C-alpha cells in the first residue's frame, strides 16, 4: 500500500468500534437479570447537595447474596434522597431502610419482564451496530478523500476490504454479546 494513505488510520477506527462494544457491555451490565449486581445501580442518579450525582459517589454498594444489594449511605441526610432515586429509577426495586443502610431485595423476574428485558438488550445492540456502521462510513469517507488525493484504485479496494472486515468482526462481537445477555436474561 502506498504512502498517500496517511489519513486512513485503521487503529483509530478499530478503537472507535471497540468503544461501541464497550459501551454496549456497560449498558448490558445495567440490565437486571434476576441476580443482584452493583452495576445495576450505575444509571441511578441522586439529587444531593444541590446537584445530581451517581449513587456510588454518595454510598458504598455491596452484594452480600445473589438476591440482595446493600447500600451504605455515607451522609445520613441523603438516605431519603437515595431511597427516592432508587424507587424512581424504573428498576422495579423497593428499598428497605435500616438507618443509613438500604437493603434492596432483588425479586424473581416473571416471563413477561424477561421478554421485555431481552427486547431492551436487542435495542442496545442495534444502537451499537449503528455506531459501528457510522465508524465504517467515516473510514470510507476518508478513503474517498485519499482517492481524490491520488490513491490508486487497487489500494482503495484493499483498504475498503480491511475496513469491512473490521466492521464485520465488530458486529460479530456485538451479536455474541447480545446472545449471551439474552440467554442470561431468559435463564430461570
Automatic annotation (TrEMBL):
Molecular function in Gene Ontology: ribosomal large subunit binding
Gene3D superfamilies xref list: 3.30.1360.40, Ribosome-recycling factor
Occurrences of domain Ribosome recycling factor (ranges): 24-186
GO terms for cellular component: cytosol
UniProt keyword annotation of Lyase present: no
Cited Pfam families: RRF
One GO term (biological process): cytoplasmic translational termination
Primary location class: cytoplasm
Keywords recorded for this protein, A-Z: Cytoplasm, Protein biosynthesis
Keyword Cytoplasm recorded: yes
Highest taxon in the source lineage: Bacteria
Record family assignment: Belongs to the RRF family.
Functional description taken from the UniProt entry: Responsible for the release of ribosomes from messenger RNA at the termination of protein biosynthesis. May increase the efficiency of translation by recycling ribosomes from one round of translation to another.
Identification of the protein by name: Ribosome-recycling factor
Organism: Halovulum dunhuangense
Gene: frr
Amino acid at each position: 500500500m502506498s504512502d498517500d494513505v496517511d489519513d486512513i488510520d485503521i487503529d483509530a477506527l478499530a478503537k472507535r468500534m471497540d468503544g461501541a462494544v464497550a459501551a454496549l457491555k456497560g449498558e448490558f451490565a445495567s440490565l437486571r437479570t434476576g441476580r443482584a449486581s452493583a452495576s445495576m445501580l450505575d444509571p441511578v442518579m441522586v439529587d444531593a447537595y444541590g446537584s445530581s450525582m451517581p449513587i456510588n459517589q454518595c454510598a458504598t454498594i455491596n452484594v452480600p447474596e445473589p438476591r440482595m444489594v446493600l447500600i451504605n449511605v455515607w451522609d445520613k441526610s441523603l438516605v431519603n434522597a437515595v431511597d427516592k432515586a432508587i424507587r424512581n429509577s424504573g428498576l422495579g426495586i423497593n428499598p428497605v431502610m435500616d438507618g443509613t443502610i438500604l437493603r434492596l431485595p432483588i425479586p424473581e423476574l416473571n416471563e413477561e419482564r424477561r421478554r421485555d428485558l431481552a427486547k431492551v438488550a436487542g435495542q442496545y445492540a442495534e444502537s451499537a451496530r449503528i455506531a459501528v456502521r457510522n465508524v465504517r462510513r467515516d473510514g470510507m469517507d476518508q478513503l474517498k478523500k485519499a482517492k481524490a488525493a491520488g490513491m490508486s484504485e487497487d489500494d482503495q479496494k484493499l483498504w475498503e476490504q480491511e475496513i469491512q472486515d473490521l466492521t464485520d468482526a465488530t458486529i460479530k462481537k456485538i451479536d455474541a454479546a447480545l446472545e449471551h445477555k439474552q440467554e442470561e436474561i431468559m435463564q430461570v
